[in-house]
């Protein structure tokens, strides 16, 4: 057994580092935190105890949006260089220390109030952001009422929000700061969520708890109740696990791709050609001329090369900008990963900081493909 060799499971590392298991898989696929061992039969990942510190450092660096290649430089470079880079964030770290003190005071007040049943404590701003990130994937019409809702699941040290209208799917996981009671899940009506988001942004800590036919949010002495849809939510995990194997994987800078799509026509084509080694997704355009390996985006009249790391098969794939752009807008951190199985199958967009966001986007067939 791996444990007898001094190795720890991905779940133990997740709890020890404050990262989710999905975020750790993202960093494995990015080459930033590769497991010490992967079981050839089960696929389970195992890590050394020494990797806990590296995982924790990655979490802290990602919280301030340091790119993946820069994190690798900080963790593997010389001490003076690492210290110089980290010193730039001292002010932010001081602010976080003040926030931690305030959080501790809030939790002490919660403990002093006695048992409140099943509940989680997390950043109100983080919850507001998570709601906004999955909201676009929820159904607008109410032909199937539950699809006009957001599934909220409390499990272990995470809160997961999921929405789907059968054509799009987004699932966002955030790390909670405290949890009491058992796991729970409910579906919140999106019409109740929208007005609550602005209120959440004005709060600090928030307590989220199920209560009868509502999700109760408590912060700074005030409460908000979000109505629940009492219907079973689709098994989105079965959808994700049933996706075809990935043939092509792309890692690129989120902001560059976003800016390009915002100025593109209705349909764009991605031309993906495998790169060798690690391609810096934050390199300048002058460093990567057209028609090289990597990612080239065209809209019928213009072609633009974006620095990207591409592994797997070469492929051309087209997207409706209106479908793809919302998923890119909501990505976490500066890096975006696309997992592609085929030009006519859903593409998985993945991103992560201390939590993770997964979105499915369906390609399209347009004149650009012919």
From TrEMBL:
SUPFAM superfamilies the UniProt entry points to: DNA clamp, Putative DNA-binding domain
Alphabetical list of SMART domains matching this protein: HTH_MERR, POL3Bc
Recorded coiled-coil stretches: none
Keyword Chloroplast: no
Gene3D superfamilies to which the protein is assigned, alphabetical: 1.10.1660.10, DNA Polymerase III, subunit A, domain 2
HTH merR-type domain residues: 7-77
Cytoplasm in keyword set: yes
Family: Belongs to the beta sliding clamp family.
Protein name as it appears in the record: MerR family transcriptional regulator
Species per Swiss-Prot/TrEMBL record: Nocardia suismassiliense
């Amino acid at each position: 057994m791996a444990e007898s060799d001094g190795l720890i499971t991905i779940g133990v590392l997740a709890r020890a580092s404050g990262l989710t298991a999905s975020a750790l898989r993202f960093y494995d696929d990015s080459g930033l935190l590769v497991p010490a061992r992967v079981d050839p039969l089960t696929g389970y990942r195992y890590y050394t105890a020494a990797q806990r510190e590296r995982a924790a450092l990655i979490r802290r660096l990602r919280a301030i949006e340091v790119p993946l290649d820069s994190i690798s430089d900080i963790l593997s470079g010389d001490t003076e260089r690492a210290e110089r880079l980290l010193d730039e964030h001292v002010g932010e770290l001081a602010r976080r220390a003040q926030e931690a003190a305030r959080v501790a005071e809030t939790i002490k007040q919660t403990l002093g109030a006695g048992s409140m049943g099943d509940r989680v404590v997390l950043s109100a701003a983080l919850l507001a952001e998570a709601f906004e990130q999955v909201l676009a994937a929820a159904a607008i019409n109410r032909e199937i009422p539950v699809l006009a809702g957001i599934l909220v699941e409390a499990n272990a040290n995470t809160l997961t929000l999921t929405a789907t209208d059968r054509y799009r799917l987004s699932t966002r996981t955030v790390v909670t700061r405290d949890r009491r009671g058992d796991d729970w899940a409910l579906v919140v009506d999106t019409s109740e969520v929208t007005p609550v988001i602005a209120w959440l942004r004005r709060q600090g800590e928030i307590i989220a708890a199920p209560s009868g036919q509502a999700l109760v949010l408590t912060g700074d002495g005030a409460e908000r109740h979000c109505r629940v849809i009492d219907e079973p939510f689709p098994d989105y995990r079965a959808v994700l696990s049933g996706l075809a194997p990935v043939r092509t994987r792309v890692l690129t800078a989120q902001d560059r791709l976003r800016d390009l799509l915002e100025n593109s026509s209705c349909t764009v084509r991605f031309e993906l050609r495998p790169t060798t080694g690690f391609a810096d997704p934050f390199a300048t355009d002058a460093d990567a001329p057209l028609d090289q390996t990597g990612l080239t985006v065209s809209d019928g009249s213009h072609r633009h090369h974006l620095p990207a790391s591409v592994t797997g098969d070469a492929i051309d794939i087209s997207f409706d900008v209106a479908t793809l752009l919302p998923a890119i807008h909501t990505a976490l951190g500066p890096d975006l990963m696309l997992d592609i199985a085929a030009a006519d199958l859903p593409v998985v967009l993945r991103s992560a900081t201390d939590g993770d966001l997964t979105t499915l986007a369906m390609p399209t067939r347009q004149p650009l493909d012919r």
